[in-house]
Write a structure and sequence with these properties.
Blueprint: H1 5-13, E1 14-17, E2 23-26, E3 29-32, H2 38-46, E4 57-59, H3 77-93, E5 96-97, H4 108-114, E6 123-126, E7 140-143, H5 146-155, E8 157-160, E9 164-171, H6 180-191, E10 199-204, H7 206-210, H8 213-221, E11 230-233, H9 237-243, H10 252-264, E12 275-280, E13 287-289, E14 297-299, H11 315-325, E15 340-343, H12 345-348, H13 351-361, E16 373-376, H14 381-389, H15 392-398, E17 402-403, E18 424-427, E19 443-446, H16 449-458, H17 464-467
Helix pairs in contact: 2-5, 6-8
The structure holds iron/sulfur cluster.
Iron/sulfur cluster binds near residues 108 and 109.
């Protein structure tokens, strides 16, 4: 009987079985940022410990960095202090910092792949929930808490349970105007926010095989929103083409050896899965969330579901969602007025996300609707520089979008980009929890970047296929 990639990578990194039944798992790569690392470093100092593998630890600043201007000192004294803490910690412990001053800064899940750090067959961890993103490369990647950040800094290991593996097979093709974001929201809607608990998700099938690395990252990024501890795609020629030549990718003979190893860790054809789910690509529509979890979503033009169509135990949450969002069952989410449009985040802040939107804006007299604040926030300085090089910043600015500096921005609003009061935001980010975007009463509608742009232009949620004339070939 063959094995899955998850089993092979897990077994290759398992140091020993612990009395608790968990495994001590060696971490190949540890990514850190300014929010979840300061306490971990303080705990190391208190115990007189060093970072065991500084050469496997890399830092960036993303959550608190303002996107208007990164000029130092930062206008927010607390943010400036957090950045200074990070700078002191990386200097003291000898950790490579992708600093804003070097043009290397960005969201932790954007810069890992961009620098070639994220590679197939690795175990990767980071003190951030969306670390699953790195699974796009055939790595097994976990979000961890602050005390675990401390543990990994000190030992390069984590105590982990072995997960079951669910294969999610996406057949056929996606129709024009339907994107990786729609697919990931579709899967979460179908399996629920707890459907993946105890599982690693392996995404495969024709649709995934054709996906670019950016699309695979969008898909894996939200595995955690479906309850899965991690999500991954088996590495292939697309993965290797993306990695080759990047700063930390193997070079020369080491590259050949690496590709041979990467090929060997792909799931075997006769691998046994604990569960298999099949999704037909053609069935998927552009999806928008209408509630307060990423599973509470619907095709943009569909009538929102009646509370009594849900299992009894889910109805209180459904009622709470409708009351909070001010939306009504039986009506479509299309037509819901928006105040803010946000294109960015570690889900959809990569070059191809912005290119796809710009493709639909360029050469058309389409502008952001009056009264709507529309932000374009690149996921990294490198993405931003490339957009400027290609003249796409101008396309966005001409259409009335604000073109900002790189950072997490309005995904979590630990920086000046925040909703106010009951504002409604069309967002390409990954969480629509109550208050997620900075205002305790703010409302978030998750959707693809192209759908966000369509909402910005109409001033209300709209089917991007109609707004931009996207048709079947
Ligand atoms: S963009 Fe959002 S989800 Fe991603 S790392 Fe930043 S705050 Fe976390």
């Amino acid at each position: 009987m063959g094995k899955t990639l998850y089993e092979k990578v897990f077994e290759a990194h398992a140091v020993r079985r612990l009395p608790s039944g968990q495994y001590q798992l060696l971490m190949g790569l540890h990514l850190i940022h300014e929010v979840t690392s300061p306490q971990a470093f303080s705990m190391l100092r208190e115990r007189g410990l060093q970072v065991l593998h500084p050469e496997r630890t890399f830092a960036t600043v993303d959550h608190i960095i303002p996107t208007h201007s990164q000029t130092r000192p930062l206008a927010d004294a607390q943010a400036e202090e957090m950045l200074q803490h990070l700078e002191r910690n990386v200097a003291e412990f000898g950790i490579r910092f992708f600093a804003p001053t070097r043009g290397e800064q960005g969201i932790v899940h954007v810069i890992g792949p961009e620098r070639g750090l994220t590679q197939p067959g690795m175990t990767i961890c980071c003190g951030d929930s969306h670390t699953a993103t790195h699974g796009a490369f055939g790595a097994i990647a976990f979000g961890i808490g602050t005390s675990q950040v401390r543990d990994v800094l000190a030992t390069q290991c984590l105590a982990m349970e072995k997960l079951k593996v669910r294969r999610i097979e996406v057949t056929g093709r996606l129709r024009p105007g339907v994107y990786a974001k729609d697919l990931t929201l579709w899967i979460i809607n179908r399996l629920g926010v707890h459907g993946g608990v105890g599982y690693a998700y392996e995404y495969g099938g024709e649709v995934i095989d054709r996906f670019s690395m950016d699309e695979r990252m969008t898909l894996c990024n939200m595995a955690i929103e479906g309850g899965a501890r991690c999500g991954y795609v088996n590495p292939d020629a697309t993965t290797y083409a993306y990695l080759q030549g990047r700063e930390y990718a193997p070079k020369g003979a080491a590259w050949e050896r690496a590709v041979a190893w990467w090929e060997s860790i792909r799931s075997d054809a006769d691998a046994r899965y604990d569960d298999v789910v099949t999704v037909r690509g053609e069935d998927i529509e552009p999806v928008v969330t209408w509630g307060i979890t990423p599973a509470q979503s619907a095709p943009v033009g569909a009538a929102l579901p009646a509370p009594d169509s849900f299992p009894e135990r889910e109805r209180p949450l459904v009622g709470e969602a409708y009351a909070y969002m001010g939306l009504e069952p039986g009506k479509p989410v299309a037509g819901t007025k928006i105040d803010v449009a946000f294109i960015g985040s570690c889900t959809n802040g990569r070059l191809s996300d912005f290119e796809e939107v710009a493709k639909h804006l360029r050469g058309r007299a389409l502008t952001v609707a009056p009264g709507v604040k529309a932000l374009v926030v690149p996921g990294s300085q490198e993405v931003r520089a490339e957009l400027v090089k290609r003249g796409l910043d101008r396309v966005f600015r001409d259409a009335g979008f604000e073109f900002r500096e790189a950072g997490c921005s309005m995904c979590l609003a630990m920086n000046p980009d925040r909703l106010e009061g009951r504002q409604v935001c069309a967002s390409s980010s990954n969480r629509n929890f109550k208050g997620r975007q900075g205002s305790p009463t703010g409302r978030t509608l998750l959707m693809s970047p192209v759908m966000v742009a369509a909402a910005a232009i109409r001033g209300a949620v709209a089917d991007a296929r109609e707004v931009f004339g996207i048709r079947e070939a």
